Amino acid sequence: METDHVMLTGQGANLFAESIGINTVPTDTLVTAYERREWEKRKKYVTGVKELFSSQGGHDTVGAVAVDSCGNVACATSTGGIRHKMVGRVGDSPVIGAGGYADNRSGAVSCTGHGESILKVTLARLIIFNIEQGKEVQEAVELALRCMAERVRGWGGAIAVTPAG
After folding, report:
1. Residue 98: Cβ-neighbour burial (10 angstroms; 0-12, 13-18, 19+)
2. Which residue in the list 32, 61, 122, 162 is annotated as catalytic?
3. pLDDT tens string 42-53
4. Model's pTM, two decimal places?
């Protein structure tokens, strides 16, 4: 079975996975003892998020960008997520143009930081837009991060590459 849909979440994603033969497991088996202890320490979302984003090393996004010998670009972004989010919350990492974006004509970007802020400004696409407007990669990233800070008081970081390397 295939689908033309770009993104599925929640029960719909689980049903689709099962329909194509992917085994599922109970959600509670995915929570480690460490994460359960951390959750107990910070039961309120706002407190938990503020502590997470004000501590050094409190988050663990892994991002990569690449360009091959033919100028094809790619991006990958994986998040450790944030604790105490609402059920059903989708962060920036899976959203095209927010946590990551790749276009062989312009470049590839992978982002890290506060997901809601990244989503509000579509940070990865904004960086690519700056590159398309003739900015060098470093300047394109800096402009987009400054825009995010000014518009939504968000913070983050990004790595980027153009087809030229």
Report:
1. buried
2. 61
3. 666 555 555 555
4. 0.78
